[in-house]
Amino acid sequence: MATIKYSRQRQSIKDYLMSTKEHPTADMIYSHVREEYPSISLGTVYRNLNFLVSQGEAIRLTCGDGSEHYDGNTTKHYHLLCSGCNRVVDLTMDPLDHIDTLAAVNFDGIIEGHTVLFRGKCPECAKQTRTSA
Known about the structure:
flat, Dna Ligase, domain 1, single chain, Arc Repressor Mutant, subunit A, alpha+beta, 3-stranded mixed β-sheet, 16% strand, two-stranded antiparallel ribbon
């Protein structure tokens, strides 16, 4: 098995993901990491994000908003895509593991897990909606 070479740029990307709750896009990560590594390319950011995801050190979230978001929190949890500001926020809730069993009832294949993305308004946008109503 090949040894994986340490990369300061990859570590910077990982540190940023671990330090934020914002679920940034690759472009946002690129902008942040360029402050420390001005010569880093967007391609390098993407390659390192793909590597971190493949190693289970980050999560890629495809939200249907045209871009992928990344999360450094790899524990099982759920997300909400805000219809007001397009932010992705963590939801604190009990796991929905029972839906794997429900999905398997009339399915001849094998259910290996699930991905759930809730849609709605984040607390800030919900407050604005209530205030303007």
